[in-house]
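re: that chain from earlier
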Amino acid sequence: MRVLLHEEAWRRVREGLEEFADLEALVFSDAAALSLRDRPVGFAEARPDIAWYSVDLFTSPARESFVELMRAAVGLKWVQVSAAGLEQPAFAELAAREVRITTSHTHASSIAEFVIAGVLDHFQCGRERRAQQAGRIWRPIFFRETMGTHWLIVGFGAIGQCVAARARALGATITGIRRDLKDSALAETIAPLSALAHHLPRADVVVLSIPLCAATTHLVDAKFLSAMKRGSVLVNVARGGLVDEAALLTALDSGIPQHAVLDVFQTEPLPPESPFWAHPCVALTAHGAGVTDQLYPRTDALFLENLRRFLDGRELLHEARGLRL
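^ sequence. v structure.
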């Protein structure tokens, strides 16, 4: 059995793969070259049974070649994706061929920390504090407490729940938006997406952690933004396509929401001419909410655990269901 993986991922888990005696590693480079047992092989003779779409591929110049190789692999049985989102059409195409797809929840805790840090920095006037230090100005600044605030988390999966746990620990009240309406110990209220208009006017913080699909594209439009509370904060750690960016800029200029913490954008890298870079009401980062010192260890460990399960015929962790083209 053969597993297709990026050369950097292979270097990290090479020793871990030694426990699987009958497994061969197809090593894929940033030059879109393949090797098997240290000899070059062509795409036509690769024939992988398993593919690991590791975090290394997110920035690889040969990313699309890797995807095409997966698409062309007739015998492919399982793909491990080191991300939570599966909006790339290739994964739905593979699922339609009955290729099993598993995702990763390993980013949830780090993304949750990012959300809390971004909101607290705004609540505690981080920009003003840094300016005062730079200017040697000794003057207390009143800041806003998290205690008693209401957080609306749109997408209450692994990431949303990790955010909720941390915000609740700081005294916030949580409303979670998801399809499954059963109660959660991490939220005072669970509601469907159709109830957004009811909950938006009460939310001090709105966190987007919902998958991007046809139904959620530009979910945050002018109507959504106009329903937000004065003084509120919008946080997007999901996908840039969830937000109508022109509408958001107009809304920020009007003062509602008061602030936006944005880790993702419709066009990435964000163009240098984008007005978001210099907007006084925006804190932005380069799609790095999950990029921590634990990123590689966690995703590597998940792949190896799911590999054991796959080869043993056991249930896989975080298997995606119902992917559609």
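The chain has ten helices and 14 strands.
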